């Protein structure tokens, strides 16, 4: 059964506290993990010196607004150009692309993806306000172009570094199931639920689920 967003609920106080928490927690995270950032930068550069250490990608966020999302580069430098050649091998149904044995992923990239370390630079997106620590996965522009009005409901909140999809099965979950997870999160969102998802995310980073 499809879940729709309950637009009648007001989340003003929650949104204000969540934003303050996002900023403080992200700043602390960047400071505490600065040593890890340095190690990953060195490993990525040694593994593939041709491209940038960071990967910048246009995504669609709150209310359909486009923004630039930051990640550690986990693929070869010309990965976007190679995507067209791999579209027919997509292993996930719906408006997103996933390929378990994607030939574009580097050796270091496969490791940092497994443990979600490639997502750490998104803490900068959180500080900027284009993302939150917890929320739906931000889609690519090409994915968003395939969204129905029903699917677009998942973007009435800021996209997150982690969320219900990441802790609910990740790449083992199809697109329709991901939308249901996100809309269910939006309808029940609270600080307690956000903290629960963050805790579950840390556990998954230690013992990965369906990430690739």
Care to describe what's here?
- The protein is globular, with a radius of gyration of 17 Å.
- With 212 residues, the chain is mainly alpha-helical.
- It has one domain (12-206).
- It has helices at residues 12-32, 34-47, 79-86, 107-114, 122-128, 141-144, 164-167, 175-188, 191-206; strands at 54-60, 66-72, 132-134, 160-162.
- Helix content is 45%, strand content 9%.
- Strand 1 (54-60) and strand 2 (66-72) form a beta hairpin.
- The strands form two sheets. It has a two-stranded antiparallel ribbon. A two-stranded parallel sheet has the order 3-4.
- Helix 1 (12-32) packs across helix 5 (122-128) and helix 2 (34-47) packs antiparallel against helix 4.
Concise structural overview:
The protein is mainly α and 212 residues long. Helix content is 45%, strand content 9%.
Question: How would you describe this structure in keywords?
Answer:
single chain; 212 residues; mainly alpha; two-stranded antiparallel sheet; two-stranded parallel ribbon; 9 helices
Please, how many helices? 9
Overall SS class? mainly alpha
Compressed to H and E, one letter per element, the order equals: HHEEHHHEHEHHH
How far do the termini sit from each other?
A: 29 Å
The largest beta-sheet arranges its strands as 1-2
Beta-strand percentage range: 5-15%
Q: Could you describe the largest sheet, including whether it forms a barrel?
A: 2 strands, antiparallel
- How helix-rich are the residues, as a percent range? 40-55%
Which outline best applies?
Answer: globular
Question: What is the domain total for the residues?
Answer: 1
